[in-house]
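Today's session is about reading a structure prediction critically. Students often jump straight to the picture, but the first step is always the sequence itself: look for stretches that repeat, for charged clusters, for runs of hydrophobic residues. Only then move on to the predicted structure, which in these notes is written as discrete structure tokens rather than atom positions. Here is the chain we will use throughout the hour.
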Amino acid sequence: AGCHPALAENFTAAFSVAVDDREQLVVLQEVERSYLRTIDIGSVQESIRRAVASAHQIQVFDVLLLKPRSVLKTSSGKIRRRACRERYLNRQILPLSVDDICETQNTLVN
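Below is the predicted structure for this chain, in token form.
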């Protein structure tokens, strides 16, 4: 989360998935509410990819930026990685999109 100010601290889930018989890394990352109107999704995703590659010498297969309160946690505050992985594999995660940003901007303006 330290690679970009828009990323919420302690709201990251990283896990592996099998793609063509190879393990691939997926990162789910919440965005700070104050950045929802102005975030450049592609730039932030690239910042995450570069930071992970630099720190761990591994390529990230997929980076999903999420609205606040989207990464599943236990009642004690631990990330529920297995549950996040299952939701990802079942396509039950709604990442931020350009439409979300425009919708947020319209809500704040109106």
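Discussion point for the tutorial: The beta strands are 7-19, 22-31, 60-66.
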